[in-house]
Amino acid sequence: MAEQISQEGMHNQSYQYMIETIIPSERRNYVYDFWRTDKVLRDRCEFIAGLYQQYVDDPTPENYFVSLMADYLLEGMYFYNGFIFFYNLASRMLMPGSADIFKMINR
User: Fold this and answer.
1) Please, what sign has the CA dihedral across residues 6, 11, 14, 19?
2) Residue 107 to residues 5, 6, 14, 79, 90: CA-CA distances in angstroms?
3) CB contact at 8 A, 51 and 70
4) Are 23 and 33 in contact (CB under 8 A)?
5) pTM to 2 decimal places
6) Active site includes 15?
7) 40-72 CB burial, b ≥16 within 10 A, e <16
């Protein structure tokens, strides 16, 4: 779990850096709060958060396993699809550093 937490910290820092570098300050809150206004994204976030909350409310080994699976679903299904955009940019020699970070996250 310590390794996962460390990787997640780098992941968050990478996204924050890109958002603050690419997106004008007046649009950042929209990006950060998009999950609140987009029903599909909000439902997905609430589903995953609900699985985490089950473990917080009842920390059994089974709920721990479910929360780990939720984490892998979140990373594997939702974020991986977003990484494709940056791999595409890197293939055109745009933002290669960001693609390198995402390759490390994938590993």
Assistant:
1) negative
2) 15, 13, 16, 13, 17
3) yes
4) no
5) 0.60
6) yes
7) eeeebeeebeebeebbeeeeeeebeeebeebbe
- Residues 24, 40: Cα–Cα separation, whole Å: 25
- Encoded tokens for 76: 């594997």
Indicate the DSSP class of residue 92: T
Task: Report residue 31 as tokens.
Answer: 């990006």
* Separation of alpha carbons 9 and 106, rounded Å: 14
**Structure-token match 């924050």, residue found:** 16
Which position has the token pair 């977003």?
82
Q: What is the spatial distance between Cα 82 and Cα 84, in angstroms, rounded to a whole number? A: 5
Task: Kindly report, residue by residue over 21-63, the tens digit of the pLDDT.
Answer: 888 888 888 878 888 899 998 998 899 899 999 999 999 999 9
pLDDT top residue among 12 and 58: 58
